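2024-03-11 09:14:02 INFO worker-7 job=invfold-0412 stage=load source=structure_tokens
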């Protein structure tokens, strides 16, 4: 069944000078403007399009790739604010409305916010909300320690960075687990460290186990080769310097250079390492 606010594969029923008419099944006829009709399109061919309601409530399609679809969390910029609410840019001709009652705090024009893209049940129209809690899963977090997950940074707190995990649960990356700049809306992979009693997750950004150390070891060797075999970071060096160069903890750095030493590849001193 075709859905508003998402990409759908629809059949072209008619080609006209103004554009193409598509079979939207339960949505009815869907219009695709002429400028976006592929050159090789023909009647009865199937085309992938994003479907939305225009300002008049007409089902309309676009082949453009929006920044987000229904069900997504995404960092979006406010283009305009009027008596209805805030309108944010989703990368197509149609902006996304964030009603005032879905704002917390009040949105400001020109700023970007992490927004959940949803379909309003009453009107059937696409909307956005910054009240993220209501869209996260309230069921128990069914994860195992060290499981890889998808992350979206929601914001910074006193403890660390709040993140949406697998678009379903809240997680936190504590400050001592952060080894690179983070900002709201940023997406990447992470790993579950612990499932807390409040059903929230402790998250780490570093790949656990020897695979992480092996990857780091290669980075260290690459840096040594770039620096003519000498690197002013030993096993007694400042953790912040290690973090700045390799985006990792001092503990992981020491494990990695220890492994390289055992392989006979480097020499280790308190303040530096060097290639053998």
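2024-03-11 09:14:09 INFO worker-7 stage=emit residues=276
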């Amino acid at each position: 069944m075709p859905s508003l606010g998402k990409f759908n594969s629809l059949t072209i029923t008619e080609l006209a000078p103004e554009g193409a008419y598509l079979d939207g099944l339960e949505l009815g006829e869907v219009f695709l403007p002429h400028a976006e009709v592929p050159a090789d399109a023909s009647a009865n061919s199937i085309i992938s399009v994003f479907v939305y309601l225009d300002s008049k409530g007409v089902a309309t399609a676009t082949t453009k790739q929006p920044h987000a679809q229904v069900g997504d969390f995404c960092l979006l910029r406010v283009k305009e604010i009027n008596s209805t609410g805030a309108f944010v840019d989703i990368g197509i001709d149609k902006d996304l409305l964030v009603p005032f009652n879905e704002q917390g705090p009040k949105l400001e024009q020109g700023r970007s916010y992490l927004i959940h893209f949803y379909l309003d049940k009453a009107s059937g129209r696409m909307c956005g909300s910054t009240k993220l809690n209501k869209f996260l899963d309230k069921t128990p977090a069914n994860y195992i320690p060290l499981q890889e997950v998808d992350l979206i940074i929601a914001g910074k707190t006193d403890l660390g960075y709040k993140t949406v995990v697998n678009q379903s649960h809240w997680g936190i990356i504590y400050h001592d687990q952060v080894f690179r700049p983070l900002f709201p809306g940023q997406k990447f992979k992470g790993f579950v460290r612990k499932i807390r009693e409040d059903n929230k997750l402790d998250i780490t950004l570093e790949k656990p186990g020897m695979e992480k150390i092996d990857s780091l070891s290669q980075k260290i060797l690459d840096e040594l080769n770039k620096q003519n075999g000498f690197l002013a970071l030993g096993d007694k060096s400042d953790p912040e310097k290690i973090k700045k160069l390799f985006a990792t903890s001092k503990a992981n750095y020491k494990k990695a250079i220890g492994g390289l030493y055992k392989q006979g590849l480097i020499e280790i001193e308190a303040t530096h390492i060097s290639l053998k």
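2024-03-11 09:14:09 INFO worker-7 stage=report msg="The first helix runs from residue 210 to 226."
2024-03-11 09:14:10 INFO worker-7 job finished
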